[in-house]
Amino acid sequence: MRALGQLELVDNLQTLGIHYHFEAEIRRILENIYNLSNCEDHLYGVALQFRLLRQEGYQVPQGTCMT
């Protein structure tokens, strides 16, 4: 699954309020995305990536795509 699809999955699980059932999987997805420094090619993807990583405590710099 592409990074954007994984980010949307995490966001949907959080929105539905069932993310606590998938904590390990969510942690693994976000860790992989953070470590790969995967940069989305549109604003929606960058914003979603930034918000989810920051929300989980990752240190993501503002104003830059993580490349």
UniProtKB/TrEMBL annotation:
Pfam families: Terpene_synth. Residues 5-62 form the Terpene synthase N-terminal domain. Keywords: Magnesium. InterPro entries: Terpene_synth_N, Terpene_synth_N_sf, Terpene_synthase-like, Terpenoid_cyclase/PrenylTrfase. GO terms for molecular function: terpene synthase activity. GO terms for biological process: terpenoid biosynthetic process. PANTHER family: OS04G0344100 PROTEIN-RELATED (PTHR31225), TERPENE SYNTHASE 10 (PTHR31225:SF9). This is Terpene synthase N-terminal domain-containing protein.
